[in-house]
Design brief:
Layout: H1 22-29, E1 36-37, H2 49-57, H3 71-85, E2 94-97, H4 101-114, E3 120-124, H5 130-137, E4 141-145, H6 160-164, E5 166-172, H7 184-194, E6 198-201, E7 224-229, H8 230-233, E8 242-246, H9 248-261, H10 267-277, H11 281-303, E9 307-308, E10 316-320, H12 326-337, E11 339-340, E12 342-343, E13 354-358, H13 363-374
Parallel strand pairs: 1-11, 3-4, 3-5, 5-6, 6-7
Antiparallel strand pairs: 2-8, 7-8, 9-10, 10-13, 12-13
Length: about 375
């Protein structure tokens, strides 16, 4: 098991993973028609028009916005959870945050202030890199939890000593990068048995392909925190609006500590988020767009002999490199298709022989990539 430990040496930030793709970007950009960047999960499609209209009005621009979220935003978040997923939560069980990366990276630090005798952050071994980075920045041990053959966390692999010192455990469903769907009820039960907070990153919940959308909140709020975002759901990554919901004691603690940090979503952004959360039609339309892109790119890669499984959720394809060399496969896709993708090692050692393809470019550009690859 790979464990990242902190020591007394000064912290030197490692290279940002996506900066390592610059050579591939140059290669792809040299093709006629230019580069098709499928490396970062930044949506390209239009946000809901009503959200943009409200944002332009500048409501709440002159005053300090509430860091916990305006009453209208918190009500809209609760209404969205109830309307879309049948999850009812109380007024004291939700708060707003500056997108999700702030929370993902900040939570280990804040939780360690609450429980200084615990220093271990458990997270999926193949996952969003910020889970491990948040632990490192908090001076914690980051311990990856092994994945099974379907890219789900294997809770039985967790060492008892690591569990005893665990500050929290992260779970991500649908998962980034593989699109896997964990048994969230089992993770919630595991955490409650050991008094370990379960932090459930559910930013792709609206794009669930296999069965009904899953949330840790379906198992109750005790000991759990669900994180949601407008970045993927509503193509509003630049708005920086997210939410955290769950255990009222934990939510109250985070609300209070964030007041002292000055972490406030700008007022106009909060107002625009209310409009986006109250509109489901644009999400349903976006879901069909991603479904088409998954089928399109998956088919093009299968023609080349690639092993492509359809994801259980999300808008990524997690593709095994034919020769087991992810960088070589990424080089091929850039050189021949003009597509820049992310080698799987960005998400953990266990993903070294895969690439992640983010389907976040317009469909006509993906068709162009397919034609290039098939030429």
């Amino acid at each position: 098991m790979v464990v990242i430990r902190t020591d007394d040496e000064p912290f030197v930030p490692p290279p940002y993973p996506y900066d390592r793709l610059n050579q591939l970007r140059e290669m792809a950009a040299s093709l006629p028609g230019g580069m098709i960047d499928l490396s970062i999960g930044a949506p390209c499609d239009a946000p809901p028009a009503e959200a943009l209209r409200v944002l332009g009005e500048g409501e709440g621009l002159r005053t300090y916005p509430p860091s916990i979220g305006s009453p209208a935003l918190l009500d809209a978040t609760r209404g969205w959870l109830d309307r879309r997923f049948g999850i009812a939560i109380g007024e004291d069980e939700v708060g707003a945050c500056l997108g999700l990366k702030e929370m993902v990276v900040g939570l280990p630090h804040w939780l360690r202030l609450r429980e200084p005798d615990r220093d271990t952050v458990l997270y999926p071994a193949v996952s969003y890199p910020s889970y491990a980075m948040g632990a490192r920045l908090a001076g914690c041990r980051s311990v990856p939890v092994a994945m099974d053959d379907q890219w789900r966390m294997d809770l039985s692999s967790i060492d008892d000593d690591d569990a005893d010192s665990a500050l929290c455990i992260w779970v991500n469903t649908p998962g980034n990068p593989a699109g896997a769907l964990d048994d969230l009820a089992a993770v919630a039960a595991w955490g409650r048995e050991r008094n370990i907070p379960v932090l459930s990153d559910e930013c792709y919940i609206e794009f669930t392909w296999d069965g009904e959308p899953r949330s840790i909140l379906r198992s109750g709020v005790e000991g759990v925190l669900a994180l949601h975002s407008l970045s993927k759901r509503s193509n509003l990554a630049g708005l920086r609006v997210g939410s955290y919901s769950g255990d009222p004691d934990l939510v109250h603690y985070l609300r209070e500590i964030r007041k002292h940090t000055g972490a406030m979503i700008p007022g106009p952004n909060q107002a625009a988020a209310v409009a986006a959360l109250n509109d489901d039609a644009h999400v349903d339309a976006q879901k069909e767009i991603y479904r088409e892109r998954i089928n399109l790119v998956g088919s093009a890669l299968r023609v080349l002999g690639a092993n492509v499984d359809s994801p259980g959720g999300g808008f990524y394809l997690w593709v095994e490199a034919n020769d087991g060399d992810a960088w070589d496969f990424a080089d091929f896709l850039a050189r021949r298709g003009g597509a820049v993708v992310s080698p799987g090692e960005f998400y953990g050692d266990q993903g070294h022989d895969h690439v992640r393809i983010a389907l976040v470019q317009p469909t006509d550009r993906l068709k162009e990539m397919a034609v290039r690859l098939g030429a």
